[in-house]
Amino acid sequence: MSNKIYNSPSSQPANTYAVGNTNEQEQCRKIAAALHKAEERCGFNAKTGLTGTMYTRVTESNNFGAQLHMPIHTNGFNGKVAGLRIMIGKRGGEAEKKCAAY
Asked: Which tens digit of pLDDT belongs to each residue from 71-81?
């Protein structure tokens, strides 16, 4: 079985950016497309959800059999936090090991 990764870019077009006449959904879809291409180049079986909400995509990801679910979202910088944030469903398993690599 190949390693399966499910990419879930933001589905929030109302979250407009301060510059560039663009929004979170548009930019996260671009990120997801580049990530998907890189994942396949590296031998992963990748799927990117472009319809539905983050809630319906969890079901789609589970039905796909993904070992890694990659939500792709952006947030504004508040002067206190920045960078990558990784979340896992439960501690002590494979998810925590994979996240620790980052």
From this structure: 998 876 666 76
Interatomic CA distance for residues 68 and 74, integer angstroms = 19
DSSP state of 5: E
Three-state SS at 68 = strand
Please state the φ and ψ torsions of residue 5, each to the nearest 5 degrees: -125, 130
Alpha carbon distances (Å) from 14 to 23, 36, 71, 85, 90 = 7, 24, 18, 22, 31
C-alpha dist (Å) from residue 69 to 8, 12, 22, 66, 92: 7, 18, 25, 6, 17
Question: Tens digit of pLDDT for each residue in 28-47?
Answer: 999 999 999 999 999 999 99
pTM of the model: 0.80
Element holding 72 (H helix, E strand) = strand 68-72
